[in-house]
Specification:
mainly alpha; 9 helices
Length: about 180
């Protein structure tokens, strides 16, 4: 399987990333709600523990949206996607260390880690738009961490909004491409 074919199949199976961004947006929204109206501890636990459910929830949402197939066995990106997914949990110790130093750095640090994890998605999906999402998250996280650490939930709300906006964009793009091209075999 050629790289372009593998990317096309990945975009097809994961709806151009829309399902994953929608699931992630919901998780960040719940964490933001806890940060705003609950406790910092609940917000932190929501994001750290809830993150483990992103992939299964993404597959379920894609199924509910009519996407029945998974990646083919010969798609070389099966392993790469799994490896990229583990970059976020491996960054959690850094996020927690930053949080110990300054509670307000939790969401900004998480934004930087998640944003950096989207950089390989540019190649994985063959979509430069993931670079825009990555830059917005990393830049937003750095700016908030340096300038507004006292605004604990702001990064969570910003991230949720960016993820929802990307999900809508990606779903529209996916639907447009499905109507213009034959289904991937």
């Amino acid at each position: 399987m050629r790289i372009e074919e593998a990317q096309r199949e990945l975009r097809h199976v994961f709806l151009h990333g829309s399902a994953g961004q929608l699931v992630s947006g919901v998780l960040w929204s719940v964490a933001a709600a806890f940060a705003t109206w609950g406790s910092p501890r609940a917000a932190i636990l929501t994001l750290c523990v809830g993150g483990m459910a992103i992939y299964p929830a993404t597959r379920l949402l894609a199924l509910l949206l009519g996407q029945r197939e998974g990646l083919s066995r010969d798609n070389p990106f099966n392993q790469l996607a799994t490896q990229i997914a583990f970059t976020v949990p491996l960054g959690i110790p850094v996020i927690l260390a930053a949080t110990v130093a300054e509670m307000g750095w939790f969401f900004p640090a998480f934004m930087v880690i998640v944003g950096a994890h989207y950089l390989p998605f540019i190649f994985l999906y063959g979509m430069w738009e993931f670079g825009v999402l990555a830059a917005a998250l990393v830049g937003g996280g750095v700016w908030l961490g340096m300038n507004r650490p006292e605004a604990f939930g702001t990064g969570a709300w910003l991230t949720a909004g960016l993820l929802f906006a990307f999900a809508v964009y990606a779903l529209v793009r996916d639907r447009r491409e499905r109507t213009m091209a034959p289904a991937v075999a």
